[in-house]
Protein 1
Amino acid sequence: MENYILTVKDLTKNFGHIHALNKITFNIKYGDFFGLIGPNGAGKSTLLKILYGIVIPEAGDTFISGLNLQYDYKKIKYGLGIVPQDDNLDEDLSVYENLIIYAMYFGIPKKESIKKSVELLTFFNLEDKKNSKVADLSGGLRRRLMIARALINNPSLIILDEPTSGLDPEYRQNIWSRLRALNESGVTILMSTHYMEEAEKLFKNVIILNHGNIVLNGSIKEITLNKKSLEEIFLNIAKN
Amino acid sequence: MKIIRKIKNINSNLSLRSFTVFYRNYMVWLKYYKPGVIGDILEPLLYLAALGFGVGKFIHNIDGISYLKYIVPGIIASSSMYAAAFESTFGAYTRMVTNGIYEAILLTPVGIEDIVLGEVLWGTAKAFMSGMAVLIIGIAFRWTISPFSFFIPVIIILNGILFSSLSLLITSFSPSYDFFSYYFTIVVSTMFLFSGVFYPISSLPYLVKYFVYIMPLYYTVSIIRMLDEGIIHPLILSSYLSVIILFALIFFYASVFFIRKRVIK
């Protein structure tokens, strides 16, 4: 467990009669760029929501940086950056205020949060939007702000639920380059996506989920070794 | 035993982080405070003026005091109730459901208990502003002159905590904004009209009078009136205070429980 930033063991979640997750087990190494793919309804978002505490599992254990999610979720959150699928930026605040208030939730001192916010606005090329209302931002800019917000606490693990969904190719490429840079700086990334091209380009390791079960788990290189593209593999799984 | 365990669990998760939730709401309020403040302050003053001067012309006194002076304590209590109720229903619902603010906050070390406490504190602050506006006008025009009146702010705060908690509990069940019509019509307006704001409840029919005793506003109005008149009955004061605190605690813990149930699946 020491080599892993995330350990998931026998994680199970049901919504009524629907088995959203069925005894899921996997690990993520420190510094990995780990992908989570699967057709709609496979259980990707449920799994991620369990990891960030919005959904409570029926059974199983989750350890993040060696801490048990069930008992230490508040401690865990200090080292976690989360970009949920649904945009939940604070519409009543400006771009800059969104970062400042988020830093406050983490208990980051004001001086430090101002410095970090300016840094993040520069990194995500949002400086000229600093005082804009969130409602005035385009979809791509909102996504960038969501990722910037998730980095305010210098997380060691960042979880992103389909962060490029619905974005045009230019914005998508833009986000990819920033995520790559983050991963190269040592941040472990766990990300779900619908786009196989994105998965092949970004992820080092991946799990494919279907009907709440892991159907494939390995490195992108291993999985595509027999010359089949990830998209072909994914379509086969979705068909079956 | 199960309830005690749940309460202990809630207590252990409460922290100073709730002030960040309060501060977030304050930051937003600062942007749009003007129309809100006018509403919160002007509306109770309109009631005071219309009923105090208008109806007061026909009612010379109640229990030996002028009608205008009689209704001041009730207007203080009811205006703080309305301010807390509006903030913790429409405002809280917008943050919880429409804008997804609770879910965004829950991605940080701030827990659901802190969110609810922060919301209660914020609703209480709104109640305090509204109640204090009436009290200050009352003191300025010498409608409230007892030295005990200086304890009225404490009761306004308790009233704010009580009605913020109750309103958050209602919000935790609400499927839409329209649902709040039931709450405001059946609960809030009923209390406003029957809790002794405008007349002594002794004038009500026997059964209705006993129905008033389950209305939390009645106790706040009674205590503020007692402090305003400067005639303190220690036993009544302490028992009424206990009722208010008990109501506030029940509503607070229930709202934490049900908001958790709604937000975390």
Protein 2
Amino acid sequence: MIFKALFLQLFTRPVTNRFPAKYMPKSVLGFLAKVEEGKARLVPPVPVTEGFRGKIAYDREKCIGCQMCIRVCPARVIEFKPEEKKIRMYVARCTYCAQCVDVCPVGALARSREFLLADYDRFAPNLVVE
Amino acid sequence: MREKVKPEEMAEANERAPACSTCFEVPIGPIHPALKEGIRFTFWIEGERIRKVDIRPGFMHRGIEFMGTKRNLIQVLYLAERICGICSISHPLAIVQAVEQAAGIEVPPRAQYIRVIIGELERIHSHLLWAGVAAHELGFDTLLHYVWKVREPVLDLLEDLTGNRINYAIPIYGGVRRDVPPEKYPVLKNALRYYRSLVDDFVNFFLRDPSIEARTRGVGVLTREEADSLCAVGPTARASGLRKDVRQDWPYFAYPDLGVRAITPEDMGLEVQGDVYDRIVVRLLEVVQSIEIIERCLEEMPDGEIIAFPKVAALLAHLKKAEGEGIGRHEAPRGEVIHYIRLQADEEAPVVWKVKAPTYSNLMPWYPMFRDQEIADIPIVAASIDPCICCMERVQIVRGGREETLWKEQLLELSWAKTRRIVRGLGPSHVTRRASRGGADERR
């Protein structure tokens, strides 16, 4: 029967991480603004693992403009800028498969562990990498 | 005088004829709280009992196969991963087999073992997810929360091994993208020990619980003969006593070395009844089986390479030259998934890509399962095959902006009209609807 497990559960910590706050704030945006002012404390998200595939980091200096990443990208995230021979990435489309990281011959792309990328604007500065 | 009835109307009227004179017709779906995805059931109900059921899929078609023929094979791999959100390794594992067969790529043995490990971990999390959903459908939400709580460690483990909880992006043509290094073995073994310690709890909570037994014993029965003749796959077939498992019948990857045997309720000393209870039994036993398989993999896994083409550019060049066809099959948590692919030289995209998801085979078994069940049993019987509707949707005919279904008579007409066109020497071009109608009139 399940009663024993339920009784034990009363004395163990809940597995749910209470992100972003212990109790649901009336307005999440208002709460986040308060966090920025330093008036409230954010309950941190569950940390990600070592090899997590998050937002792609781009090293502009190393990029040689070979366009291999554009060829393999399944979500067509990457745009080529022909005049500079560099790329621009629209993170809002990204599926985080990191195939572009594997294919890059000079190591200009890398996986980062950044994953809190929700935004109202898909062209927000944080979501366009160039 | 009445107008002449068109064949499609006749077929529809035929389908709509009540199964008995006192039956009520109750449509459920395509959007309904009892269903997780869009599919329409029409039940003919007499009192509380279902006498006849009709199923109409086709609301969730996404045109993935068509999209695949517009992309190169590496892009198709990640598209295949997104056919299903839960079997997010089963479809890639099937397509890599198909492409490796078509392009003649040898996979290093260590990669084969890693594929098996990730596939079996996925089976554990998928079966736990199903167990939670089934508990919820029965109104046992405590159990839902308990099961989904214990499902988290396996997702964390998958994130640790692959880089993401769902959509692992691990297999690639000719191997796997990421190794399971020996440093990770203790983490894996710990997680397996944790799940082994939970098995007794699961048996207690699910199989010895009187209310679950009362709600699932004798409900949604699929006999062995029906399962065989309707080509059920996966746990649905095995719960009816069919020892049918791709890992046993056509072993692939490292499965030939591991000697997997299909599981039926008999393995727990129970008599096979083919009801929802038996499907719970089979899935719980398969979780145990998956733990055993992974443990054996960790012991027997050889060292060595994990990928045949370390450079992606070389792989793309090899795939571009490849010509031929291949079939890949994998035992997904829900049953057998098949991918067919045809490659042409100097063509980056596959010419044909055909996917058969397990739910496609498990739709027909719904007919005998629903027969003579009560209305209140609809959610649990529908959920008992672990349906995944959007993975299964393959055909949607749209002409002139309107969707429509071609009935058998219309298909025959199209076929006859095509024959006549070829006989007249006009060539096998696409026959318009008007031409086929005219052709049919001529025949009369």
